[in-house]
Structures are given as C-alpha cells and as structure tokens.
Design goal:
With 246 residues, the protein is mostly helical. It comes from Echinostoma caproni.
Amino acid sequence: MSQGLNLTGAQSTSQSNTDDGRGLLTVSNVLMTQLERCWQDGIYLVNLRHRFWRLTLQLLSRYCSFVTRQISSHQTPTEPQTTSTPSTSNLKPLLFLLVDCFQLIAYVRVALPAHISSKLGTLDTAAANESPSSFPTWLTECLEEVCERIHQTINPLQSLIVDQLLRSCLNFSRQILDVPRQYRRTNRSLPTTSSTYVSAMIDPLSELGDLCRTAVIAASCAKPALEQLINRAVTQLSEAFPKAPH
C-alpha cells in the first residue's frame, strides 16, 4: 500500500540536522529536482517556454494525484487477507508524506517562482510594470492554485494517520478482557501495578511523537500541523478508549 513512499537516503540511514527545504521521501525530492531541471541552463529553451511551463504544471499535478492515490489505497486496502495491526512503521511514510506536502507548498510559493521568473524575464507589459523584486501575477496565481490543491490533501492525510494510530492503540485494549480471567476462581493477589496493555497502548503514540520531532528537524514549516496532529490523536484516543471493547 505504501508503494512509492520510499524514504530518502538521509532519512533511512542517518537524520539530517538542517532544514534544507527538501522532502523526506524520494518521490518528493525527485519532483523538486526535476522542477528545477526544467529551468536550468542547457535544458530550458526560450522558444519552448510555454511547453516547459506546461511540463512544470503537469509534474505538480501528477504529484497531487499521487498523494490522493496513496490516501485512497490506505483507506481501502488491496490485501484483505492481511490482518496485521497498524503500527508506527506503517505510519512513518504517511507522516513524512504529510510533511512533504508542507515542504512542497513552501517550495512552490518561494523557490520555484524565482527559478521560473529568472528565465522568463519580462514577457509582457503587465510583468514589466511590476516591481523587479516581485513575480508576475499570472505566475503566482497559477502556482497558488497548485498549492491549494496540495493543501486539500492535508486534512485527509491527517485523518488517515490518526485513524490508523487509534486502531493500533485500541487493539491492545482487548487485553482488558483477559484480566478477569487471570484472577477468576484463583487465590492470586489482585494486581498492584499497571497491566502490560496500558504501556502497549501508549507506545504507538510515543513513537509517533518521536517521528514528529524527527520530521520537524527537516521541515520546520510543518511544526504547527504536527503539533495539531498529536493533539488530535491524544484527544480522539481519550474519547475512544471508554468505547473500546473491554
């Protein structure tokens, strides 16, 4: 289900301590690299600028479609025979995809217009009348539409991550049913320490917090959203626990 959500070499081996504006997933890094290549000297051709602009929009559109397909594939698993419990190892690519969406939005709003504008120059009178330090209005408006489309995938991604996390945590609540059986019709002393299911339920949430801290190092722009994600997960877990099968 996580096909295409491969981690970059830096993230799969050792963590980078800098916010370099790049993605945590290979697919995101490849996208940003190819977007820059479209406008590099030796590749970009002035007479075909309309085609390079079209290719830029197509690349961004394909990425949006890719994110949407990932959400859909995790919501409707293609392997019904699989009964494994969701874990943070499954959530890690989804979380990093969420972070990459924020990274890409920042890239499209700041870095990409600079690459494109430097090659286009003043192609029309409207652009010529604008401040030299600003980007053409048509350029920023088109790219902002792309950003809005990327942003529309963020809430479904957050909901998917929280849903899978809750299923992972609440799966251990079934162990509550075993507690009475262990002491029924026995002379065993009543438990005085927390049952193992308590820490088992909290561990996935703690691991998600660790993943968020790792992601923030590489993408500070995603920090508010990740804080919101953790708060949302804690709130929904607290509300769902009393309703879990005990």
